[in-house]
Each structure stands twice: as C-alpha cells, then as structure tokens.
Design goal:
This protein is an all-alpha fold. It contains 56 helices and 3 strands. Strands 1-3-2 form a 3-stranded antiparallel beta sheet. The longest helix has 32 residues, at 821-852. The radius of gyration is 35 Å and the shape is globular. The protein starts with 7 loop residues before the first helix and ends with a helix.
C-alpha cells in the first residue's frame, strides 16, 4: 500500500474535531466512527495514524495520532475466531513495517516534548507486543543506540525512556558492551538525560538474574546515586521523584546492591528529608527508599548502625512538626480532620522499621531520644515520644517486654500531663500497648493502668481526651480476662454512662467501649444491664435523623453485645422491643448498603440469634434476605493502569494474570461479614436454617476459590459443614445432598491441588482442609468415591511439595552471608506456619482413613511415594530428613488409629522413627512421636506391645527433661507423653495380652505416672484430658492402692490436679467427662480434712478459683 493511498486529510480532520471538542459532546460519535474504520481496514487505519504522527504539522494532531495508534494496535477484534489476537499482530508484515518506519522517523524528527513522550510509550508498547510473539525489531535497537550518542538531549531521553519501558530489548547483548551506553547517559550534562539513563539502567539491572552479571553494573548504579544531590532543588523536584522511584525499585527487586551503596544512599536520603525547600511528598518518597531497603534486606541495615542513628532523629523531628490548632479541640467529627502528613509518615516509618529490624537494633537508638523528648518543655516533643512508644511495641515486642514494668509506668505517668494532647497521646500508647503486650500487660499491670486511665474520662474540658481514654479501654478489655475486669466495672460503667451525655463522637466512642467491656466482662455485666439497656433503647427510639446513622449503628452493636453477655433469661424482657427497633431500622435502610447501620445490623442480628437460639427462628425471614443480598454482591475487578488509579483506603488491589486490578474494599468487607453471619445462623439453628441452606450453599461453593479476598474465601469455607448438618437434620433428600457434596469436594480439592498463588491465601487454604474433613465428619461413610480420593491425594501431595519447597527456600536464605539472628527468627515463624498447615493436612488424612479404612490404602501409597522420593533425593540433607520424619510419623499416627493391627504392615516405615522421635530436637517430632506411641498401645494390637513397653523410658525422659514451668511450645509434647504412658500401662502392661519378659513392673510405672501427672496435669490437649479423666477415674473407683497411695496420701495431689483441670476448663463442652471429673473431685475432697481442698483452692489463680467454684457448687 503506497503513501498516496492513505486518507490523511480525512483522518486529520476527524482528529481535529476530536481535539476541538472541549465539551465532549462529539467524542463518543468520533470514537465510534474511528473504530468502524479500524474494523473495516485495520492496516489502513494504523498506517494512516503512523503517517500523521510522523508528518503532520500540528503537534496536537501528532500526539493524538500516537495515542490512537497505540490504543487501536493493542485492541482485540470482536470476531470470535481471532479473539486472542491484537490488531498489531493481525496486520500484514508490510503494513507493520511501514508503521515501524514512520515511528523511527518520528523518533528522529519529533521536536515537541509532549508528543515525544507519547511516542516513546507507543514504541515501547508495540515493541513489547511484537517481542511477546517472537518478533524482532533490530532497526529500533540500532536507532536507540544512535540516539544515546546524539548531541540532542531529547533524542537521548527518548532512547533511555524506551529502554526503561522495554529492558528486554537489550536481552542477548553483551552487558559489558551495553554498560558504556548507560555510563554515558549518567554522565550527561543535562539532568533530565541523567535521570532517564538511571531509569533505564535500573529497569535493565532489575531484570538481570545472574549476580555476577549484576556486579558489572555496581559502579554504574553508584554513579546514578551520586547524581541525585544535584537534583535537590525545587527546580528539579519532579526529576528527583523519578530518580527516587528508581532506588525504591532497586530496594524492592534487587536489595543486595545496597550492601555496596548503603552509606551513600543514607547520606543522600537524609539530605532530601531535611531540605526545607522540597515538598513533603518528595521527602516521603525519599524515606520510602530507606524503608524498602530495611524491609527487603534487614540484615544489611542491622549491620550498619549509622542507618538508624541518622534516620531516627529525623523521624522524631518530623513527629514534632504539628501545630496546636483550634480545630483539634472544637471539631464535631475527628474523622474529618486533615491528616498531618509529616507526623503520619514518621509514625508509620518507625512502625515499619521496628517490624523489619527488630528491637535489638532500633530500641537502643530510640531510647537515646525518648528521654530527651520526654524532658522537653514543648508538648510536641512529649507527644512524639509517646507515639514513638506506641508504634515501637509490635516490632520490638520481645525487647520491650523485658522492661514492660518500667515502660508502662513511664507512659501511665503522662496521663496526668498538663497538656491535653499529651494526655491524648498517653491514652493512645496505653491502648496500643494493651494490644501489643497482651495478655501479660493486662494480667500484671491492670491496677496501674485502669486506676489511672478511668479518671481521664472525667476530663470534661477536653472531649477528645475523654473519648480516647474510652478507646484505650477497648484495647485493654478485649485482651483482659473477665476476673481482671471485674474490680473496675462499677467505676468504669459509671464513667461511661456519664459520657453518653457528651458530644456525638464521644457518645459513639462510649457506646463502642461499653460493647467491648460487656464482651470481656460477660455475665458479670448483668449487674449493669438494667441501667444501660434502657439508655440504648432510648437512643434507638429518638436518634432517627440521618446524621445519627453511625451512632445508631454503634448502639445496635452495643445492645446486641450486652444481650449476648447477660444471656437469654435476662435479655428476654427487652427482646421484643430490641427486635422491633432492629426490624424498623432494617426496613428504613432497605438495600442501601452504604448506610453505616447496615453492617452493624448484620452482626447484631447474629448475636441476638446466639442469645435466643430457636426462639429466633421466626425472625429469619427479616434477616436472611439482607444477608443473602450482601453475600451475593458482585466483586467486579477494575483494571488499574497505575498506582494513582486507586485510593488505598477504599480499594484492595491484586495482580491477576499479570495485570493489576482493584475491587472496592467496602464490597469485600460487606460480603465477608454477611457470610460470616450466615455461618453463625447455620451453626446455631441447624435444621431450622434448612429453608435457606441450599441458597447459601449455592452462594458459598463458587467462593471456595475466590481470589480477591482471603476473608471471603475463609467465610465461605466455614459455612459449608454447618449447612450440610442443616440439610441432613432436616431430612433433605440424600441424592440432593450428594450432588452438593460433590460440587463442594471438587471445588475444595481442585483449589488445594493447584496450590496457593498468594501468601495471604494460607489461612483460607488451611481452612479448606478443615472444611473438607469437617464435611467428612458430617456426611460419614460412603461420601468419598475413587475420583475424590484421587483428588484428595493430589491436594495432599501439593501441600507436601510446597512444604518441602519452603524448606529449600529457607536453606538458601540461611546460606546468605548477611543472614543474622533476626532473620532466623523470621524463618522460625515461617516454619511454625508450615507446621500449622501440615497439622490440618494430617487431620484430613486421619479423617479419610476413619471413614474409608483399608479402601484408602492404594491411594495412600501414592502419598508415601512422594515422601520417599524426597527422602531419597535429599538423603544427606538433615533439614529434609527432619521434615520427612515429621510428616511420616504424623501420617502414620492416623494409619495406626484407624487401621489398627493392619497398620503393622507398614511398621518398618515409621515405628523406629516414632521411637527415636521422642528425643528429637524438633518439638513437633517429639509431640507426634509421643502421641503415636500411645496410639500404637491403644489401637495397634499385640505386635506393637513390646515396642510400646520399651518406649516407656523415652516417654518418661521426654517429660522429665522439660523445664519448669513448661514453655508454651512444649506443652502438647509433654501432655501427649503423659497420656501415652497411661495408655501403655492400660493397654499393654495390664491389658488382656501383656508382653512377656519385659522386666517392667506395672505398679512402678503407675506410681511414677501419678507423680508426673499430679505435677503436670493435662489442661491444654482436650482429647488427652478426656482420656486421662476416664483412665484415672476407673482406677480411683476401683480404689487402686497405687493411685491412692498409702493411707490415701496421694489424694491432696490428685485433688490439686483435678482442680487445675476443672478450673482451666480443659473439658469445656465435654459434658460426660467434665461431670465425671467434678464428681471424682467432690468424692476425693470429702475423703480428706477440710483444710486440704481449701489449701488447693487458695493455690489457684483467681480465674481458676471462680471457674472451679461455679462448676462444683
């Protein structure tokens, strides 16, 4: 097609109309006309646009041609047979070559910077698409290299901009030959060229995979950094931001480079952060460089003390740059207050530094500054010190906890500071510390905190301080035990009721605090019910205008929380009034989910259901339709071209198939809340929820692989088993239940077999395993066919593969030269997460064996094959051998429990590992090995008996070697060892076929076991606690002399052990076993002098005393 054939004038006129349509009246018509021409002859349209871009005299026409050329070339035709191809790929080679020639001409000739910018983007887009399809454009690369040598700065900028957008174009070329191109640009006299060269270099460098190749460019990166000080000038601020963005990208993608340039980087960034002539946004971007380095490569930063020494004082100074505005005191809505950018940036930065670097590094420097700031006469300095403590707590938890007494007393003292904003900051610090250091701070310092915090609510002259004191109470109450809160309730509720007369935002905060306190105080709130509930009802009756919507929502929440705390009997006199008010509110807001009352109602109806149980059934027709509407909200993803396209507070963003998309956060939150509430209704009402069960199942099943929200996915998974219970109890047709089950099972197992794509899917995928085995418990035998068992094996093998892959990743990280103790703590936490996931996998395997028995064995062999392959491939790797031992012993615990004597066929694969595992350094292996020996004794049959008897010394050693008091991470292994000793005694040593010639005296074993158990009664592992209550109860009923001891000498110890079990609520929900334990306790208490149980009672914690007293009275 020749140049003369192109309808240049016609298209030029159309584009001129497009540009001239300032009101936008004709834009849609013009776009439709252009699209029609494109579809009729795409090659002609693209060539014409390319020609106009190169040759038209009007810069606006050239720029618009560039935009349309890029847009149209990247569009997909509507015809189905070619729907996967873009117009750029569909036009013939001659047409594409013509367009490329025009683009190269424009690259050489374009004089206008705005047009050139669009041209750069168009060339990069089209070249990227060409390369993705295996094409090449060698002429472009040659032209770019020529441009970098041009005396024209715009030419050089364009070249580097295109390379920066398309670093792959340099792929396959010798890095040593490319390096001078970058060095030339970085040394250019024109600052915009230097920055463009830096952008191109960073894009290229970030894509390099081999560290030895990256090393070639270390001095080039350093040179780019050295050029930044020349940009610290308002004249170059936009270019400075571009340069800083480059170093943020380096810190995120290739942080190892900062090992060589950290000192220079620090100096440059501090200079920017302290330059008063720059905008705060620029300074914050500079700060982001250092924060990203600290988060991506914390070990490098920890080894360079000057990093924190230089940065922290600047951040503390930023926190003082706040004014004492009148608005802070007079506002009617603190939520609408303009944020203080520097203060917020500094507190967020300290929080991030604490989380990434840890307390050992950060606190040393922080507490060089904090005393000085506390000693200042300027209120802003004291305010800054308190907020610093607030944000340091989570990341520096372990170090601060060692000095928690001192720090808490320090902070509490400032609740009486003469300046109200410092008192506000002290309330904030107390609230945050109550969360970060729970439950220790609540247990150890409740009197210190509450006796000083509650009086702050009397600060009538400063409502914001009052409200923040009430807010701090929420954090404290949420983590405090009921007995901890009890002494303060009279004073606290008196203050809170008084605050309900304050400003609207104070009322809102107070009502939220009341809800939190009653939730913590539980039934001890009954005393205050009659004074609080009428006030809440009065608010709901009278506060009906739109400005009170949030207040009403919080009141609805508070009323339902109070009802749940006091229970059905106390609530029922007000039930009809509350339900009617809720109903009226539901009707008034209709389907307006933007009304703040909507979300509060969702959760509050569910609490009322929990109180009223089956009496709530008549109200389901009011509640469920609204929940279903919220659960069905469409979470439609919007393509986000740039980070500026979304406001982070209002959107959640994701990468899906390589594209960044966003969904409004409010939709995801409402959807999640609604489904969580449906979980409550289905659990509480069982068969009475059946009329809605099928509809809710149809909503939840597709959400089991919902990629946009872990919370939604988890809620959907939680809902499944209770819904099947509802259908079964309502006698729904078996065929229908089976159809739903196969949909659920396929969705769950297919999702698990594909594995987790995102880190934040871990919780939901763990829940999928839980949901799967909970459904097996509900549906029972016959619910797994061959197909589902095969799919289950694939899911298990995928999880095991990920588990072993994570070991490999951690091994590599541990070999890093910069790996340090803080990094190791992070890896240990990752290992704990992996163990948690594995536990759910093992539970699922156990349930499958439980219902399938030997029919699962052929499928189980496929799991074993995968494990054995790892053992063989990594025979010399201790970490893999340890992991494999953990997996094997855990899996065979299930095999022994549910196959019994038949499991002996596999004993060579696991039994020796189980025996030796009780002395393994890995606590998880000790735990499952101890559990396994007990299962072998109880279920395995006589083949196992000699091994179980011989394992007794290992079990006793496991217990005796444990430090006292028992660390939390060792409790389960110790409790399982204690329980397993009892099982070996019961089923092996004194069973129907005890092994011969063991040399073991059963009476000696029992006597030693009594010593062990009474010293460490089982209170955490409910299954083992239940077993021991039955085991020990039978021996006591038989008046076993070993158990009772000479002249009943063991009874005081046994009474103490039973008191601990009952007082710890170890048997909560196990009615038979708990009743037996209580009966045995009472009998034993009656056989000893009265001072013995009194002494035992006095030795318990106040919480256990209260529970024991309630249970045994």
């Amino acid at each position: 097609m020749t140049h003369s054939q192109l309808p240049l004038e016609e298209l030029s006129n159309i584009l001129q109309r497009f540009i001239g349509d300032k009101a936008g009246d004709q834009i849609k018509e013009i776009q439709t006309q252009l699209l029609s021409s494109l579809r009729q002859n795409p090659a002609l349209m693209l060539q014409t646009l390319a020609t106009l871009l190169h040759t038209h005299e009007n810069p606006a026409i050239r720029k618009t041609s560039s935009v349309f050329l890029r847009t149209f070339a990247m569009q997909v035709p509507e015809t189905e047979e070619i729907s996967n191809k873009l117009y750029w790929n569909l036009i013939d080679d001659n047409a594409r070559t013509y367009c490329q020639q025009q683009l190269l001409g424009s690259l050489k000739d374009e004089p206008e910077s705005s047009v050139r910018k669009s041209l750069n983007e168009t060339i990069a887009y089209l070249t990227a698409q060409l390369m993705q399809n295996g094409g090449r454009w060698d002429e472009l690369l040659y032209a770019l290299f020529e441009c970098t040598k041009s005396p024209s700065s715009p030419h050089k900028e364009s070249a580097f901009k295109i390379i920066g957008s398309l670093p792959d174009i340099l792929g396959g070329h010798d890095p040593q030959a490319i390096k001078p191109v970058f060095m030339g640009g970085l040394n250019d006299a024109v600052v915009s060229v230097r920055v463009s060269a830096l952008e191109a270099l960073v894009a290229y460098y970030s894509d390099l995979e081999q560290s030895n190749v990256r090393q070639i460019f270390t001095d080039a990166i350093s040179l780019g950094l050295e050029g930044i000080p020349s940009l610290i000038n308002p004249q170059y601020e936009e270019l400075l931001r571009d340069a800083l963005a480059c170093f943020i990208e380096l810190a995120d993608k290739t942080p190892q480079i900062f090992k060589h340039i950290l000192a220079k980087t620090l100096d440059v960034i501090i200079a920017i952060m302290t330059c008063a002539d720059l905008e705060h946004d620029t300074q914050e971007l500079a700060l982001e460089v250092l924060l990203t380095v600290a988060e991506s490569k914390p070990a490098i930063v920890r080894k360079y003390p000057r990093f924190v020494q230089a940065l922290l004082p600047v951040l503390f100074q930023w926190m003082t740059e706040i004014e004492d505005e009148e608005e802070w005191y007079t506002t009617e809505d603190p939520e609408t207050e303009d944020p203080n950018e520097k203060f917020d940036a500094a507190t967020t930065a300290i929080d991030r530094l604490a989380l990434s670097l840890g307390g050992a590094v950060l606190l040393r420097e922080a507490f060089q500054l904090i005393p000085k700031y506390f000693g200042s006469e300027q209120w802003q300095a004291r305010h800054a010190a308190l907020f610093a403590i607030s944000v340091l707590g989570e990341g520096c938890h372990d170090v601060i906890e060692q000095e928690l007494d001192q720090v808490t007393r320090l902070v509490v003292g400032y609740l009486k500071d003469p300046h109200p904003r410092v008192r506000y900051a002290a309330c904030n610090a107390i609230g945050q510390m109550s969360t970060d250091f729970a439950p220790k701070i609540e247990k150890d310092f409740h009197e210190l905190i509450m006796s000083n915090l509650i009086p702050v609510m009397d600060d009538m002259a400063f409502p914001r301080v009052q409200a923040h004191a009430a807010a701090a109470v929420i954090n404290f109450a949420e983590e405090a035990e009921k007995e901890t809160m009890k002494p303060y309730l009279d004073t606290l509720f008196a203050r809170l009721v008084k605050l309900l007369q304050g400003k609207k935002y104070v009322q809102q905060q107070t009502i939220t605090t009341i809800a939190a306190v009653v939730d913590s105080a539980k039934d001890t709130s009954t005393k205050y019910y009659d004074s609080i509930m009428p006030i809440l009802i009065e608010i709901l009756v009278n506060a009906t205008s739109p400005e009170f919507a949030l207040l009403r929502g919080k009141t609805i929440e508070c009323a339902s929380s109070l009802a749940l705390a006091v229970g059905k009997e106390k609530f029922m006199p007000h039930a009809a009034d509350i339900i009617e008010l809720f109903r009226q509110t539901q009707v008034a807001i209709g389907e307006d989910t933007s009304n703040p009352q909507s979300t509060y109602l969702l959760a509050s109806w569910a609490r009322i259901c929990q109180v009223m149980k089956k009496d709530f059934v008549p109200y389901l027709n009011i509640v469920v339709p609204a929940l279903v509407r919220s659960a069905e909200l469409k979470a439609e993803a919007t393509l986000l071209d740039d980070v500026e396209d979304l406001v982070e507070e209002n959107w959640d963003s994701f990468y899906l198939e390589g594209q960044r998309v966003g969904i409004p956060t409010a939709i995801l939150e409402e959807k999640s809340t609604a489904i969580h509430m449906l979980v409550i209704y289905s659990r509480e009402l069982a068969e009475d929820f059946a009329p809605y069960a099928e509809r809710v199942l149809e909503i939840c099943i597709p959400l089991l692989n919902f990629v946009f929200s872990d919370s939604v996915k988890t809620a959907a998974a939680l809902c499944i088993a209770p819904l099947f219970t509802s259908l079964i109890k309502s006698h729904t047709a078996i065929d229908k239940i089976g159809t739903y089950w196969h949909k659920v099972a396929h969705k769950i197992l297919d999702t698990l077999a594909k594995g987790m794509e995102y880190e934040d899917e871990i919780d939901s995928d763990v829940q999928l395993f839980s949901t799967f085995y909970e459904c097996l418990d509900v549906l029972g035998e016959g619910c797994l066919n061959e197909e589902l068992m095969n799919m289950f094996v694939q899911a298990v093998n995928k999880s095991l593969a990920v588990y072993f892959e994570n070991i490999e990743k951690r091994n590599k990280l541990r070999k890093d030269a910069d790996h340090d103790a803080e990094d190791e703590e992070d890896l240990k936490r990752d290992e704990e997460n992996d163990s948690f996931i594995l536990d759910e996998v093992f539970r699922a395997v156990a349930r499958v064996f439980k219902i399938q028995k030997t029919s699962f064995l052929p499928h189980f062999d496929k799991i074993l094959t995968g494990i054995n392959n790892v053992l063989t491939a990594k025979a010399q790797d201790a970490s893999y051998q340890t992991a494999a031992q953990h997996v094997i012993v855990n899996v065979f615990c299930a095999v022994v429990q549910y196959l019994g004597p038949q499991s002996w066929n596999y004993h060579q694969l696991f039994l020796e590992r189980m025996v030796t595992g009780m002395s393994h350094e890995n606590v998880d292996i000790r735990h499952c090995s101890a559990l396994g020996i007990g299962l072998c004794a109880k279920y395995g049959g006589e083949n196992y008996f000699p091994v179980c008897a011989a394992a007794l010394p290992n079990l006793f050693n496991l217990v005796s070697a444990t430090p006292q008091p028992v660390p939390p991470e060792l409790i389960l292994s110790v409790e399982n060892a204690i329980s397993s000793i009892a099982k070996v005694y019961q089923y092996v040593l004194v069973g129907s076929k005890p092994p011969q010639n063991t040399g073991i005296d059963p009476n000696d074993v029992l006597a030693r076991w009594i010593d062990v158990y009474t010293a460490m009664p089982i209170v955490d592992d409910q299954e083992e606690a239940k077993y021991v209550v039955d085991f020990l109860g039978e021996l006591l009923e038989a008046n076993n002399p070993i158990v009772l001891g000479q002249n009943n000498s063991n009874l005081p110890r046994l009474i103490k052990a039973y008191a601990e079990v009952i007082g710890s609520e170890a048997l909560e929900g196990c009615e038979r076993e708990e009743a037996k334990a209580i009966q045995t306790f009472k009998i034993m208490a009656g056989l000893v002098p009265a001072d013995v149980p009194q002494s035992v009672f006095a030795s318990l914690t106040p919480e256990k005393q209260a529970i024991l007293q309630k249970k045994v009275q």
